[in-house]
Every structure is written in structure tokens, then in C-alpha cells.
Amino acid sequence: MADGSSITKDGAALASSSIAVTHRDSEPLSSAKGQTTITDGVVTKVAGLAAREVPGVYELGGGTARTIGSVTQKVGLGDARTQGVSVEVGQREAAVDLTVVIEYGESIPQVAEAVRNQVIKRVEGITGLSVTEVNITVNDLYFPGDHDEQPPAPPRVA
Amino acid sequence: MPERVQRPASGRVLLARLAERAIAAQDAVGATAGRDGRWVTADGDRLIDGVVVVAAGRRLDVELHVVAEWPPEPLQQLAARLRGELELSASYCGLSDQLGDVDVAIDDVCERGDTGVVR
A122 vs chain B: nearest CA distance in angstroms? Predict the structure, then answer.
């Protein structure tokens, strides 16, 4: 939305964001022959990669997050693909919060809706979790010709 | 110096080797030993990454730690296939009686070319 507020899954604009979902780290999915564990980090990464697949999304993360992210990535502590993404994961459901930078000229509501649909499709399809909400905050616009940040250097050590 | 005697591999090591092969047989999936390298099984002079075998009574429970390449197939499906491969291999090798639970942990998702995917 033009005033920077979040847009929830049902299309209604809200000033504040996500509904709390019980958070359990690495909640196992049990079967008779063993458990399958999908870490919260994987869910976060899936959401982030899904959002980046949408045309019109330039980057994830707000200004401060991106600045901090570029520092942590340089020292091998951060991952660009989870910057600007946070998830709350329960046993069967997930809620996703995203902060995005959209390319100037794109329709913000259309890009936001496309991001929402892609994140839901990927998270539900890949993890099996039901996505209850995807909150998107459009933090900035990218103008071609702006001074681009240097891409984060790959870590030199494992 | 006496020659080093090679002892026959234990059931634990045999299952770990089968698990290693089950992971290697999957496309776009790699084993991960974790950031601190703790998800490994010792097999003589080498370490089998991404496999932990733990005694559970008379049986051996196996943990598989994997990284999937983006975009992965449904992860539960991947886990079920890994489990099935290991169970099948164990039955061929006469280790079904020893094989307990097979837990699969999807620890990361990486894009092609990332160092996170171990092959």
C-alpha cells in the first residue's frame, strides 16, 4: 500500500502485522517408520527464494536489514536469501512476513499479490505446511541507475 | 610392524554406508554434516557425512541430514523415498532386523552452485 502498511492474505490492509502462531523449532512430522524434520530455517529460505522468483521484486529486506545483512554476509554469518523474511511455524501451519523492495514502474499491489501467491504455492508445495498468512511490507522502490550495492562476497570459509 | 587387521564392519557402519548410498542416489540432494560437523559416522579412516546411527535397544535408529537443491520436490516425499531406499537396501543386505527408525532432517535448501550442497 502507498502508505507502507502491510497487506494481508485476504487483501485487507492492516497497520500492524502477523497473528501469533505457536512456534516450535524443527517440529517433526511423524510416521510409523521415523520422523521427518524440516527446520524453520528451511521454511524461511523457501519463502525468501519464492519471493525472489516474482518479476518486479528487486530485493528483500528493508534499509537497515540490508545494511546489517551485507555486513553479516561478508563475514559469513548471514544469508541473503533469508534477509527480509521471517516465519512463524507450527505443526501444520506457517505465517510469513516479508519486506520487499519493488522495481519502480511495477504495480505494487499486483507484485505483492504475485509474491503472496508464489510464497503460498512454494511453501505449501515444498514443506506441506498450510500458510495462514503472508504479510508483505513494501519498504522501498528501486530505480534503475541507482547506485547498486556490491553483491555480498561468498564466504571464504565453510 | 604387524599389519593392520581389518575388522569386519559392524551393523552400525554397514547401515551408515547404505544410508550414504541412499542419499547419493537422489538427484539434487546432498548430505550435510552440519556446521559443527557432528552429523557423521566414523567408518575406519573416513567420516560418512550426514548420517548418524544410534543404538535403540536391539535395533539401530538412523538419522539422515540432507540439503536439497532449489526448487526441491515436496520434502515429505523426498524423506519417504530416502527412508524407502534405505529399508530396501537393508533388506537386501540382511540388515532389516537391525534397522530401527529412519529419521530424515531437511537442514537446508540451497541454490545450484552453493557450497551448502555436499556431493
Answer: 9
